[in-house]
Write a structure and sequence with these properties.
Elements lengths: L11 E3 L11 E5 L4 E4 L14 H6 L3 H32 L1
Antiparallel strand pairs: 1-3, 2-3
């Protein structure tokens, strides 16, 4: 488990029918305690960008945060390259 993070099972949530309508992201399986599990493909992934900078430093996640920033910059560059290519193709067709 990550340093500074409690070993809590975040995949379990209480079922309260009157609070919210039927959620398609929840499985229909309910255990004996009245809890439902959330399908893994619908769970959010913990990323350092979801924390404040002071918490990133306190938990020792500075390296991971810089790696996440590099990945996000790479994704942005890939998206921009795709836009440039599509724009160039459209201008050629025009």
């Amino acid at each position: 488990m990550m340093e500074g993070i409690e070993n809590d099972d975040l995949s379990l949530r209480p079922v309260e029918q009157e609070d919210f309508p039927t959620n398609p992201h929840l499985d229909d399986d309910e255990d004996s305690n009245g809890w439902q599990t959330i399908a893994p493909e619908h769970m959010s992934i913990f990323m350092p960008s979801s924390l404040q900078f002071a918490d990133i430093q306190r938990l020792g996640l500075v390296t991971m945060a810089s790696q996440e920033l590099e990945l996000r910059q790479g994704q942005a560059n890939d998206a921009l390259e795709g836009l440039r290519l599509a724009w160039g193709h459209k201008s050629l067709l025009f």
